[in-house]
Amino acid sequence: MSLLLSSVGFGLITSAVLAIAAVGFTLQFAVTDVLNLAFAGVMTAGAFTAYLVNQAGYSVWVGLVAAMAAGSVLSALLNYLVYAPFQRRGAAPITLVIVSLGMALIIEFGIAAVAGGVGVSYRMGQGRTVRLGGLVLTTVQLTIMAISLVVMVGVHALLRYSRLGKAMRATAANRMLARTCGIRTGRVIAVTWAVTGALCGLAGTVFAIDVGSFDPTSTDIFLILILAAVFLGGPGNAYAAMLGALVIGLATEISAAYIQADYKYVVAFVILLAMLAVRPTGLLGTRT
Amino acid sequence: MSDTPGAAARRTPPSGRAQLARRPGQGRWRPRSAAVLAAVALTAALAACSSSSSGSHSTLTFADVAPFSGPDAALGPIYLVSCDGTTNAINKAGGILGHQVKCTTADTRGEPADAVPAVGNLIQNTGNLALVIGCTSDEAASVVPVINKNKTVMFCMTGQSEFDHVKYPYFYRLVPPDLAESYAMTVIAQKLGYKKIALAFGNDIGSQTFVQPAIAAIAKAGLTMVANETLDLHATTFRTEAAKIVAAHPDAIMTEALGNADPTLLAEIKQLNGGKMIPVIGTSAAISPVFYSACAKAVGASDFAANFHADNLVTATSGPAYEAFTHALLAVKGHVSGAQTGDFATYFTAPGAVHLYDGMNLAALAMVAAGSPDTAKWKPWIAKIGDGTPGAVVVNSFAAGVAALKAGKKIRYVGPGGPTSFDAFHDSPGIFQIDTYSTTGKVMVSGSITTAEIRAVSP
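The joint structure predicted for all components is written out below.
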C-alpha cells in the first residue's frame, strides 16, 4: 500500500511535468498544423539555457524565465526560418514531420557539440522532504506541481477568455474561415509559436529540475511520452493533453511498482494502443 | 482555479469550446493519420545517427570505437584521452617506422544497431587503419566479428564472457571478464560487512552482463539479495525503482547504470531514505571524472565520497611506466573533446585510459619490432613484446622500447597496467583493487582483492 501511494505521488510529479509539455505541444500542433518533433529539442535548449544562467551564479528559477524566453525565440525562429517557408511551398504534413525530425537532430547534436554529451545538473537543493500520507515529495517537486497547475489554469484562461485564445481556437478550427472573419491568422500562428515555445522552454527546465541530471539526449524518450499523452487525450485539445498526461504519468509510475520497472513505458503504450483501438480520436477527441 | 481540465472541457458549449480540436474534414490533419505519421517519424527518430572520420594514407590511424553519445557517452572520451595522449607521445618519439599516428573516432552510441554501420563506415573510409581500441560490452558482440573479418587488430574493453572461449585472431583485451568484476563487487560487500544487497543495473548489454554472476556470487558468499531493479537507461526518473530499493532496506547497492541513470537513481534513493545515502558499490566503469562529477552533483560530494566504493584493476601509481603514462595524458589535457569535466587525474586510474594506453603501445612497438606496419607481420609480436621472451629487457614506454629495439635488444613492455600474460584467446586479465573517491573527485585506493577472495565467491 505504501509503495502504491508512493508511486501515485511519483506519477503526479511525472504528470505535472508532462502536462506542461503536452499542452504546449498540442496547442502548437492544433494552431500551426505542424507536428513538431523538434519540440523536445527546444525543451533541451531551454534546459541548457537555464543551466547556463544557473552556472553564472543565478537561481535556477531565474534560469527558468530565461529558458522560457529562449524557447519562445527558438520556436519562433524555427517557424520563421524553416516551417513557414515549407508551408508556403505547399509541403505535405508528412514532409514537415520529417523536417521537424531533422531539426530535432540538428538542435540536439548542436547542443551536444557545444555542451558535450555528458550529464549536467543544476546547482540547487531539492528542498526538504514532505510526507503526505504515503506520498513522499520534496518542496521542489511540490513547486513543480504548483507551476504545472498555474500553467494549466493560465492556458484555460488564455483559450477561454482572451482575444488571442479565441483567435487561436478559430485558426485551429478553420484557418481559411478565420481569415475570412478578419482574424490575422499569420500573426496568430507566429504568436502561437512564441507562446508554445515559452511553454516548451518551461517544460524543459522543470523536466531537468525533476530528473536532476540531464544531457542533450535526455528528452528523447520524453518526446514519446508527450506524444502518447497528446494522442491518448485527443490531438489538438489542450484539456485532452492534460488528461492524457495524467493517465500516462500515473500509469508509468504505478506499473513500475508491480512489474519489472524498465517496462513501465511499454505499459504506457499498451494503454495508448488499446485506447486508440477503441476510440481512435482519443479520450476527449471528437469522433469523425 | 478549482476547475479540472476534463470538467472544464465537458462544461464548455460547442460554440465557445475552449479547445482546439478540428472539425471533421476541415483540417488537413486527422487524429488517426497524425498518429500514424507520428509513429512513423518516431520510429525514424529512434534510429539514431553515427559518425566516423576518414584518415589520410600517409599517416597510421588508431580508431576509438565506443559510445560518444547515448547513456554510455562518458566511455568514448576516456578512451580518446588515452588515444590522443598515446599517439602524441608516439609521434614525439619519431612515430612508428617514420609514420605519424593519429586518432579517429566511431560513435557506436552504445547500440549494436548504430555500432555496425559506424564501424563499416570507419573501415571503408579510413586510410591506413592500423588499430581499433574501445569496443565496450555495449557493442563488442556485433563489431568484433566485423573488425576481425577486416583483419584489423583491436584492443577491446568488453568484459563479455563469450570472448573467453570464442577465438577471434585479431581480438585482444587487457581487462577481465565481467563476471570477475561481479565477484569483485561481492568481495567488496563482504569486506565492508554488508549483508543485504540490492542490485540496480542498467538495461544495456554492458550492464546486464554483471547481474547473473552477481546474483550467484552473492548467494555463494552467504549474503542476501533483497532487490534487483533493472533500470531503463533512457528513462527520465527512477522514483518507483528507488522506492522499492529503499523499502527493501539494503545495506548496500551494487550498480552500473551509466549516463544520467545512476546519478538520478542515487539522488532519488537519498531523498526517499530521509536524506541518507545508502552505500554504493560500483564497477570499474564508475571510475571516471564524468561519473564522479554527475553523482557528486546529484547527491553531494561528501555524501557520495563517503558512501561509494568500486572495484578497479590494479594499476601503477608510481614508477617509470606511470610517469610516462601521466606525462603522455597531461600533454593533451584540455585538448580532447568531451573530456573537460572533473578532475583530469581520474584518467590516470580509469581502466579504459590505462589499459588502452598499454594496448596501443604494445601495438606500436610490435610494428617497430616487426619492421612493418603490415598487420600480418606485426600481430605476432604483440604477445612476444607483452609477455616477454627469454633475455628481454623491460621497457616502460614506447620511446624506451624503440631505443632498446634500435640497440638490438629484445624487449618486454610493462606499462602502467602491469605485465601482461596473454592466453590462447588473447585475454590478459589483471587483478583487482578497491577504489574510492575523495570529496574533490580524486581516486584513492582503499584496499585490495586477492585471487583467493575472488575464487571464494565464484560459483
